[in-house]
Amino acid sequence: MNKLKSYLVNLCRALLAITFIFSGFVKSIDPLGTQYKIGDYLEALGLAGQIPDWIQLLASVTLSGIEFVLGVLILLAIRRRMVSKITLVFMIFMTGVTLWLTIGNPIQDCGCFGDALHLSNAQTFGKNVVLLIAAFIVMRWPLYQVRFISKTNQWIATYFTIIFILVASALSLYHLPIFDFRPYFIGQNIQKGMEMPPGAKETQYKTTFICVKDGVQKEFDENNYPYDDSTWVFQDTKQEIIEQGYEPPIHDFSITDAKTGQDLTQDILSKKGYTFLLVSPHLEMAEVKNFGDINSIYDYAKANGYGFYGLTASTERGINHWRNATGAKYPFYTTDGTTLKTMIRSNPGLLLLYKGTIINKWGHNDLPTPEELNAPLSLLSIGHEPENNTWLKILMIVLCYILPLILLIVADRIWAWTKWVKKKEEWVKEKEQSNKLYQLLKHKRQMRKKIVAGNWKMNETLQEGVALAKEINEVLKADKPNCDVIICTPFIHLASVAQVLDKNLVGLGAENCADKEKGAYTGEVSAAMVKSTGAEYVILGHSERRQYYGETAEILKEKVLLALANGLKVIFCCGETLEEREANKQNEVVKAELVNSVFNLTEDEWKNIIIAYEPIWAIGTGKTATSDQAEEMLAYIRSIIAEKYGKEIAEETSILYGGSCKASNAPELFSKPNIDGGLIGGASLKAADFKGIIDAWKK
Ligand code: PEP
User: Fold this and answer.
1) Inside any domain, residue 180
2) Does the annotation count 632 as an active-site position?
3) What is the pLDDT of residues 536-563, one digit of tens each?
4) Terminus of the chain with fewer CB atoms < 10 Å: N or C?
5) Where is each Methylamine utilisation protein MauE domain found (predicted)?
6) Distance (Å, rounded) from C-alpha 363 to C-alpha 350?
7) How many other C-beta atoms are found inside a 10 Å radius of the C-beta of residue 430?
């Protein structure tokens, strides 16, 4: 579906681009022609003579240029969203204008394609409806337009196009249009251009006569005209085309002597030799600066026996104005103003005819100089019809505009491609690096010790304890664990239990030790004494000791230091109360416990620390923290360890979860990436339950 949309959008976009480029270009290279067409529109709107010529010319250059630039922007998909909106607005306006032309017929030819292509008003309207639909489709999905040039370099193509079309317009205005699409092109025989091919049908008109009698207006045709009734007074005629016949390319050319009314068309067109025609639709507005050249061309023509006539639509006053301004001695005859504007886009302009065929044309800025006219025309190159140089002109446009634009696009594509390749390389590198980091972290996690530690608390007599230890030892001997197993017993069990445990299978730890080294502390057991039983671990900071025996952060700090100093590994507990969690203070509380009791340790000392997070509300209550809650807290603890000791040490630290951990919930808890095992209370008092939890590491 998306592919189909993309095809449709790009097809519509191509249609719009080609039309806009073509119509914009042919009008831009004929700025005067477009200005005349604007004049026709103003006349149809009743605004004739109200807008100065220079504004019309400016509008002609601007509008045609905008159309061309818009076409190129659509073609290259530059500023896709904005351009598609402008195009739609443009097409809505143009379709409205051509609908008006089709209904009202105020102008015969809309002038959409200048003189390059003539369409009837109905055809133009049909064309615009199609383009309007295309513009709507492109506007609806502008981003489906395939880009030919990257965003960064679009401005180069845009400015280059604007400069190109303005220069093309200026050159066409200063000289003559680059391409001549009118019927008075070089090589055209005017007489032949007026001929009807044999058998061609002439256009059929219907003439209606409007007469008035007693204030009543009535229309008559040739058949019922009241020739015999003189009370009907003739007022006006109307002419309608009944059937369009063949229209010769030149159908409105005539030369008349205004003074005598004599038609000189045939005389002039059938002259055997050369004839110069100085063409000026309005002599009052003609450029006078090159009159010297014109006069010398006239003198040259006279001296060589060539004809030289001025053709104008101006009245006697205008002719006299010109004569006074330039000293012109050549005769002036009358030709229709529109015909003269069609003959040459220059006021004045010069045509050279040979036997009625146009063999050369000059704008007033390019008239042949007296130095050039140094021999009879038959001996000069200007006296011969030049070779058709249309292909040369096309080649020039290709070299000056299309080729640089293509090179720009190619360079841009290469640039964009290298950028893309570089980005891809960087992306691959980044991915590799993050993969490496991920592998490292995974490795570290695999390397990190997985631990299941039991905390018997104040349970079991000496005999019961030894029996339980023996049983655990046996069970694990029979089925080797996948993790480190530790049992932490009351002091009185330590020495005896140490005797029954296989050190390689089960580690032994105490549940507490004194905060003093030794001496008169009745009832206390020092870290050194614990170590001497064969125990390797000690639980410190358990919430029950903090709660019931008033162990503060300061006391725990001392205990930790003494335990480490005596070669014990510390399982340091931390965790929040229910109220603290409900107040969302768990992170704050846990951080304070660690900061105040163990974050004073050196990196070396830290290597003998195991952290056990035990939310107080989950200890012995049967209420486990969810695996997500536990994971979230353990990840947080690892992050603050990383802040303190660095990422590597944090990754190596084993962090356990404790609180109603059982064989049933251990697998889920231990599956979390930051949970390295559990500190088990109640469930460590039965070998089978304890083993069930240990086996969670096998799943
Ligand atoms: C404990 O006291 O360390 C503990 C985790 O207890 P229980 O497993 O019984 O909740």
Assistant:
1) no
2) no
3) 999 999 999 999 999 999 999 999 999 9
4) N
5) 6-138
6) 6
7) 10
